[in-house]
Amino acid sequence: MSSSQPSVSIVVPVRNEADNIAPLIEEITTALDGRWAYEIIYINDGSTDATGERLASIMTQRDNLRQLRHARSGGQSAAVRSGVRAARGAIVATLDGDGQNNPAFLPDLIAAVEKGSNIGLAAGQRVGRKDTGFKKFQSRVANKVRNAILQDGTRDTGCGLKAFRREVFLMMPYFDGLHRFLPALVRREGFDIAYVDVIDRPRRSGVSNYGFFDRLWIGIMDLAGVWWLIRRKKPTPEVTEVQA
Fold it and tell me: Where does the Glycosyltransferase 2-like domain lie (predicted)?
């Protein structure tokens, strides 16, 4: 695969996902080869297992694979942000590194952004989730509360499968947990959202590294903060340059 200027960047945040690296990269390449000039950016978020070594080995075979490393774990939002800032493609797509997100849906998400002149975000919406009943209950409650307060029109913001215009993402105010509020913030900037149903699947190997309880109370504060941001948003002025 050529390392020429990509039009699409695939961003994958990972922490201690060594056994999931090679199978997921293979699926990404199967989904995208021959369709777009693309790069894959893995953000190694302070892993302490063989994640870095597995990525380095595959990088010798694929020159469109890049690895960014956080010296210590900064969390999922920080990892996504690092990947987007380093991306060379005008369109960025994200997915989780644990194998639950199927890369076969990436083309639909990328195409949705390409085809919509005002589409800022294409958001995956999971069907047939492979989580425990308790975790699905948590998500239903969280999504209902978030939607009632922010009115973002999105039933599932927790899906890692997303595609967006890089420039739109970089317009967002950054905070930890940003990735869970992208629909509301994208609408705040005047862009539309496309939705794509995606089929969830079980994690291939390992355990979740970005849990629920470690972000519960912070998520409540984030919700209040995003609500405040939306309330304080003024229309973007139409700007023209006056010529002499």
Answer: 9-169
